[in-house]
Amino acid sequence: xxxxxxxxxxxxxxxxxxxxxxxxxxxxxxxxxxxxxxxxxxxxxxxxxxxxxxxxxxxxxxxxxxxxxxxxxxxxxxxxxxxxxxxxxxxxxxxxxxxxxxxxxxxxxxxxxxxxxxxxxxxxxxxxxxxxxxxxxxxxxxxxxxxxxxxxxxxxxxxx
Length: 160
Prior knowledge:
There is one protein chain. This protein is α+β, with helices and mostly antiparallel strands. It has one domain (2-156): Sandwich (Immunoglobulin-like). It has helices spanning 2-21, 78-83, and strands at 23-25, 39-40, 45-51, 55-64, 67-76, 86-97, 103-114, 119-126, 133-143, 151-156. The strands form 2 sheets. Strands 1, 2, 6, 7, 9 and 10 form a 6-stranded antiparallel beta sheet that branches.
């Protein structure tokens, strides 16, 4: 019984960590992000707040020697916190962009399931050459409780 529980726990942990550590190259992509959704990363370090309909990302970054440290937390909107019992399959990603807003690379920052509590994140990643700004993307499901439980998906991607 304990072995089965340990195996299940390890499988769940792997399922949550693998998507957060995947990097998706966009080599040759012509996809871009509108200036309104771009966050400049021209300073060596900065912090801020990015707001979307379903959540707010409080973030900070610092850059050195081709690396960027991204940290912060994700706070969900009250309508999700109060309206749904559980969070399922949530993923937050960061998209690195060149000076024209063209997508260079996308990297996972956080995954989670469970309560709609704030989700902390801290990640050090290689900064793509020519990265001038970043943007956030996310997706997840809110699960209702009760006898007629349902699922509501929410997402945002600034890539066009």
